[in-house]
Amino acid sequence: MPAGDSAGAEARRQLALADAHANAAAEARAKAARFGIAELTERRTAATLAPLSGVGYHLLADRGWPGSRTAQVDLVVVGPGGVFIVDTKAWRDVSIQGDRVLRGQDDVTDDLLALADLGYAAEAEFAEVGLAPGEVRPVVVLAGRHGINERVGPVRIVGEKDALRHIASHGTRLTPAQVDSVLARALSYFPQVGASPPVNVAVPEPLVPSPAGSFEQEALLSEDEVQAALLEGILASPIEEWMSFLHPGQAKLVRRSFNGPARIRGSAGTGKTVVGLHRAAYLARTRPGTVLVTTFVRTLPGVMRQTLARLAPDVVDQVEFASAHRFALGLLKERGVTVNLQPQQARNAFERAWREVASDGALGRSSLERRYWEEEIDYVLKGRGITRFEQYADLTRTGRRHRLTVEQRRAVWALFEAYTRELRARRVHDYQDVILLADAELRRQPLDRYSAVVVDEAQDFSCAMVRMMHALVRDSTDGLTLIGDGQQSIYPGGYTLAEAGVSLAGRGVVLDINYRNTAEILAFASRMVDGDEFADIEGVVARGDVPGNVARTGPDPVIEQCVNRAERDRLVVGRVRSVTATVGTSAGDVGVLCVTAKGVERAADALRAAGFPVVLLSDYDGAPVDAVKVGTIKRAKGLEFKQVLLADVRADQLAGAEPPREDASRERWQLLRRELYVAMTRARDGLWLGVI
């Protein structure tokens, strides 16, 4: 080696080493600066949220990120408002554009999505103790900012000075016992971060001064601002327990994924609608597009929307509520399809068709009422969208007990054709036409704005209605969820999912714990359908599901024998006066249900005359109102009341009465008994019947 080469090589090595140390030092200083800022901002966020400790919250700082060896969670807040997973960001020049978050020119949305993923994982963990998924809320706090409250996906973005108000504003959603249960799970799931590992360098550790407040920030909240934020939460209306805390099995079902159409069934009071609403909120929170929640009863969607607005206000605008007919009418209007829904003119058209082709023929000579044949057309033919006699001739008429001869089927078809001609001559449509027109329009041009459809009370839908809803999402993952109970089917006829082109392929779940009724009420109601068999939508003859557990007990239902309607009216008023005198029961907790519209009118008039505020279920939109709810049983589907009064029941309609022998009469009798079963199972604490 030439002289001087070794010295030169060593010099170059030392210079390279010095450069490496310099780069490492610069990197360490930059990292230290970032951690220093993070330490300061996280401490300020913790200090900002510290007042929550005075109203039942627990602040878990510097917790481990589950599944990661190095990542940490800044703050986990557990309290009456739920669980908040808080991440503080010292970001400047932040802008939110649609579903993207920009830091200057850099897209930092992935940072938020990581927090969203943690939120999803935490939902599954807390479901083990029954916490509803929507009660786990990822929150990003922007240090030094205020006046910010935005949402990107499931992540809420707030300013530092907005964080306290945001969390406190959720009010009381969990009881102290539930908070304790969730807190125990949080302490286990988010482990305490241990001491930092030792620094492995060959230089003496410098003395590190205490951090100075060099990171320019506005002052923390004033005492008045703190008190105002906390007071807002304290004064927020409390919610029902089921809105935030479920049975663990229900909480898991809300998040369960199905690789196609799915069905959730269970007897009355098992929480089907509760699961459906939570599932709608969960799907809205976790996927783009709109979630449609639909049912048969016209007024129920409004009630459900009001409920979701309290259950999940963050996503209520991403969920559309509409009855099947309202949805169909909206679609037809949007597509420019002319529809002239005229129910009375449609009835006149049927009467004329009946006189012309049926009154003197095979149908008119039969022992069955004209109403039976009208229902045959409405539910069996038009409910399926049958257009050729050959289809009808071979049809298994699901849910219809009375067997028809070939002659009678031909006569029904002739009546159907005459009715169709009369409708066209009048240029009007009936309710079934609205569904069939919308179904045809979706086949012509699919609609892609819905990411999921949840059908409540699916047993009340016609075959064409289910086909229409299925067309919106087809067989997509978690696209169609059917919720219902065949035992509560109160309309003539029926259908099978196979007829609608829907295959469940084993994607069905049964709920078997009754949360609503007392054992006494459920036993009394169940006698109405004892031994009742029905045509289930999965294509089998079934009996109702029996709850495996009924935890609550209470007084026996009361039957009052009345000599006439006037006495029954007086007894209805007396019963309402008696139950509303009980602590914890107000007029708004009472439902007076009737089989007929005339019964509704009589009961409402009697209560008003006695000075009770009344709201008709036909007008009820779900908003809290301290008035007795009065309506038909059909209007009460999907609702519940502390106290239920059945105000127009006949003795021959109750348990123990002999059923008619003739098939068609027996079918109608069974439908009425199921309707009364539905009414009785609306009651949580007390049931009263006025019987003539």
Automatic annotation (TrEMBL):
A matching Pfam family = NERD
Q: Taking every annotated instance into account, which residue ranges of this chain make up the domain UvrD-like helicase ATP-binding? A: 245-518
According to its UniProt record, this protein's enzyme class is isomerase
Reaction catalysed by this enzyme = Couples ATP hydrolysis with the unwinding of duplex DNA by translocating in the 3'-5' direction; ATP + H2O = ADP + phosphate + H(+)
Q: Where does ATP bind?
A: G266, S267, A268, G269, T270, G271, K272, T273
Tell me its EC number(s), please: 5.6.2.4
User: What does the UniProt keyword field contain?
Assistant: ATP-binding, Helicase, Hydrolase, Isomerase, Nucleotide-binding
Top-level taxon of the source organism: Bacteria
Under the heading InterPro entries, the entry gives: DExx_box_DNA_helicase_dom_sf (IPR013986), DNA_helicase_UvrD-like_C (IPR014017), DNA_helicase_UvrD/REP (IPR000212), NERD (IPR011528), P-loop_NTPase (IPR027417), UvrD-like_ATP-bd (IPR014016)
Protein's GO biological process: recombinational repair
Q: Does the keyword Plastid apply?
A: no
Carries keyword Disulfide bond? no
GO molecular function terms noted in the UniProt entry: 3'-5' DNA helicase activity; ATP binding; DNA binding; hydrolase activity
Q: What family, per the record?
A: Belongs to the helicase family. UvrD subfamily.
The protein's name in its UniProt record: DNA 3'-5' helicase
Say which species the protein is native to: Cellulomonas fimi
